[in-house]
Every structure is written in structure tokens, then in C-alpha cells.
């Protein structure tokens, strides 16, 4: 193709008009209005900050975050790290952040699994199963979340005491003191094995990427599961065995008026988790159902013509395509579950909101306490959004 032909097909760019310092030029008007808006917002913020500082000074209220390093004297019944009332407010708030993350992370995983199952059940050919799933969605979504949390907490509080605890499975006890489960005595070998599992999962993912790249290059499929089995099972077991293979199960036992040993799931955490999971799963179910229905019927027919069973069509053909519709609204539900966990204060679970409220009541520094709560939820929400946006971009269709 000649240079003249290329020049003829090249899109023409309109000439750039010179900037005129006149109100009739839309660029000048836009710059003036933007500067005016920024100035008004800055003036409002300056007035709020100055007025707040003046009021705090008049009332002789201390400001700053120096209180974080004072002794808290705050009892916290449930904590993932070592904590005592003699520790600082900073450590108490850290315990609250970890308690919030414990609810959010576990809740997101369980709500995703339950919501996906219910969403698929709503499309089932079994009339009874589809109707039960529909009733679940309609009832759960129409009831306020706070009411559901109080409902589950009341049920757990009305369970029998430890001496009459329910014992559905050997070593598992359910009472008004919570859920008691057998648990292993954690040692250094278990932590090393867990790190080896994480390393094995990363190695499996890298090996799978390389195998797919080589298959695209030469057309020869390569098995990933043998390497994954070695990395994700053999490596952790080898590390665990090399460090002595400790395996001591700590089983709960009734001693006096309560159980000792094992893993304890408090009634507050249990009620909060069940309430958040069941409530959010109702919304996720509708998102999954809508995503599946967005895939054309021709995809089902083409896959069935190849001899694939219904479950295989759903798992291998439909759901991967539906994810592009499911992921964006699913992100909103993950954020809602995380923010709704702040209702834990209503049933006595000590998350970041509960501990920060107690802290600001004891210290009188409400602005700093509320700022900490806002910063924690903003950080968690932005982290979830960043991860989901990355995943959504990864599964997006790439035009050629």
C-alpha cells in the first residue's frame, strides 16, 4: 500500500483551537467553575476544622492519637492475638480489627458458597427444590438484618446449659456458651506446614500458567494435577513430618460449670456469622441466577449436543461465562457484608466498632475514635474492591 493511500485512510484530527481568555470559551468557563467549586469546598473544610479545634480548646478536650499508647483496661472476651486489659488502646483496637476481619472473610466465603447453591437451586428442574429456594430468597431479603441477628442470638441464648449441651457428634457440643469443637494443639510444625501449603498453591498456579502457555504454543495438553498434588499435599506433609509430625487433638470436656479445651465459637460470633451469611446469600443467589440466565440457550444446546451432562454444562460452559455478569454486583454484596458486620454491637460481639466506641467513651476523644472506625472500613472496602476489580479484569473477554 502506497504512502498516499495510507495518508488517505488515516483519520483526520480537527485543528486545536487557540485558548482565548474570554467567557465565551467553554474551556475558560470550565476552569473558572472548577476553581470556584474547589475554593468553596476548601473554605467549608477550613471552617469546619477551625470551628472544631476552637470548640475542643474551649472545652479543654485533648486531641491527637497519643491515647493509643495508654493502658486500655478494657476486657475483650474473644481475640485472635494475645491480649490483656493491661495492654494499650492500640492493641485493643487491633484486636477489634482482627475480629472484624474474622467475620468478614469467613462470611464472604460461606455466603458465596451458600448463595451460589441457592441460585442454582432456583433454576433446578426439581419443582420442590426450586420453590424452597425461591421462598428462602423472598423471606430472607424482606426481613431487616438487625432483626435476623437478634433472632439467631436469642435462639443461641435459649439453648441448654453446658451440663445439658447438645452433642450431635462425638466431641462437638452446642450450648448457650457457644459451640465447642475438637482442635489440634497448634505448634511450630503446623505453622510451617501452612506456609508450605501456601507456597505449594502459588507454585501450582505458576505451573498451571506455564502449562497453558506451552499448550497454546504446541497444542499438546499437559497434566497439572500431578504437580499440584505434590506441591499442595506432599510438600506440607513433608515439612510437617520433618519437624516431628506433632498431632495432639485437644477435645473439649465438661469440667465444673463449663467446657475446657478444644475450639470455642462464642454465641455472639456464631449468631453474627449465621445472620450475615444467610442474609447476604439471599442477594448473592439472585445475582448468580441472573448471571446464569444471561448465558444464551444456544450454549446449553451446543454443549448437550457434544454429550456433556447437565452438571458438566453448568460447571464448564455456563458458569465461566456467567462470571462476567456475576462479579461486578457480587463485589457490592461483599462490601455490604463487611459493612453490615458493624451491627455486631447489637448482640455484644466486640468488633472494631464496639471496641472503638468503648475507647472513645473512656478517653472522650470521639473524633479520633470515629476516624479510626472510618479508616478501618475504608481500607477493608478498598482492598475488597481492588481485588474484585483485578479478578473482573482477568476474566473479561479480550477482543481481537
UniProtKB/TrEMBL annotation:
Alphabetic keyword roster: Amino-acid transport, Cell membrane, Membrane, Transmembrane, Transmembrane helix, Transport
Bilayer disposition of the protein: Multi-pass membrane protein
Database matches in PROSITE patterns: ABC_TM1
ABC transmembrane type-1 domain residues: 97-388
Transmembrane domains' residue ranges: 30-49, 103-123, 135-155, 188-208, 229-249, 269-292, 370-391
Stored CDD domains: TM_PBP2
Compartments, as annotated in UniProt: Cell inner membrane; Cell membrane
Main localization, broad class: membrane
Database matches in Pfam families: BPD_transp_1 (PF00528)
Keyword Cytoplasm included in the entry's annotation: no
NCBIfam families: HEQRo_perm_3TM (TIGR01726)
Family of the protein in this entry: Belongs to the binding-protein-dependent transport system permease family. HisMQ subfamily.
Protein name as annotated: Amino acid ABC transporter permease
Species: Caldovatus aquaticus
Amino acid at each position: 500500500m502506497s504512502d498516499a493511500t495510507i495518508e488517505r485512510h488515516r483519520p483526520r484530527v480537527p485543528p486545536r483551537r487557540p485558548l482565548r481568555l474570554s467567557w465565551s470559551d467553554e474551556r475558560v468557563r470550565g476552569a473558572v467553575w472548577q476553581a470556584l467549586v474547589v475554593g468553596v469546598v476548601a473554605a467549608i473544610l477550613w471552617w469546619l476544622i477551625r470551628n472544631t479545634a476552637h470548640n475542643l480548646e474551649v472545652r479543654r478536650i485533648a486531641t491527637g492519637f497519643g491515647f493509643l499508647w495508654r493502658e486500655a483496661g478494657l476486657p475483650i472476651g474473644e481475640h485472635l492475638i494475645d491480649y490483656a486489659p493491661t495492654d494499650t488502646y492500640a492493641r485493643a483496637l487491633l484486636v477489634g480489627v482482627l475480629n472484624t476481619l474474622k467475620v468478614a472473610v469467613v462470611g464472604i466465603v460461606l455466603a458465596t458458597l451458600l448463595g451460589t447453591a441457592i441460585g442454582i437451586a432456583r433454576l433446578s428442574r426439581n419443582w420442590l427444590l426450586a420453590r424452597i429456594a425461591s421462598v428462602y430468597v423472598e423471606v430472607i431479603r424482606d426481613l431487616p438484618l438487625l432483626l435476623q441477628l437478634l433472632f439467631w442470638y436469642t435462639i443461641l441464648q435459649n439453648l441448654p446449659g453446658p451440663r445439658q449441651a447438645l452433642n450431635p457428634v462425638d466431641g462437638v457440643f452446642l450450648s448457650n456458651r457457644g459451640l465447642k469443637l475438637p482442635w489440634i494443639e497448634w505448634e511450630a510444625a503446623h505453622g510451617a506446614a501452612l506456609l508450605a501449603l501456601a507456597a505449594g498453591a502459588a507454585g501450582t498456579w505458576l505451573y498451571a500458567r506455564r502449562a497453558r502457555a506451552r499448550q497454546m504454543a504446541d497444542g499438546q495438553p499437559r497434566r497439572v494435577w500431578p504437580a499440584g498434588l505434590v506441591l499442595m499435599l506432599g510438600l506440607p506433609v513433608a515439612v510437617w513430618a520433618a519437624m516431628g509430625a506433632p498431632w495432639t487433638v485437644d477435645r473439649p470436656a465438661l469440667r465444673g460449670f463449663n467446657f475446657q479445651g478444644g475450639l470455642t465459637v462464642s454465641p455472639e460470633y456464631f449468631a453474627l456469622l449465621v445472620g450475615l451469611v444467610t442474609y447476604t446469600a439471599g442477594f448473592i443467589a439472585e445475582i448468580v441466577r441472573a448471571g446464569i440466565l444471561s448465558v444464551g440457550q444456544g450454549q446449553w444446546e451446543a454443549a448437550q449436543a457434544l454429550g456433556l451432562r447437565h452438571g458438566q454444562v453448568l460447571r464448564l460452559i455456563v458458569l465461566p461465562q456467567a462470571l462476567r455478569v456475576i462479579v461486578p454486583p457480587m463485589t457490592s454484596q461483599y462490601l455490604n457484608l463487611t459493612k453490615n458486620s458493624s451491627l455486631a454491637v447489637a448482640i455484644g460481639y466486640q468488633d472494631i466498632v464496639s471496641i472503638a466506641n468503648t475507647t472513645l467513651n473512656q478517653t472522650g476523644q470521639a473524633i479520633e475514635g470515629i476516624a479510626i472506625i472510618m479508616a478501618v472500613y475504608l481500607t477493608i472496602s478498598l482492598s475488597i474492591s481492588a481485588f474484585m476489580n483485578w479478578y473482573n479484569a482477568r476474566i473479561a473477554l479480550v477482543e481481537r
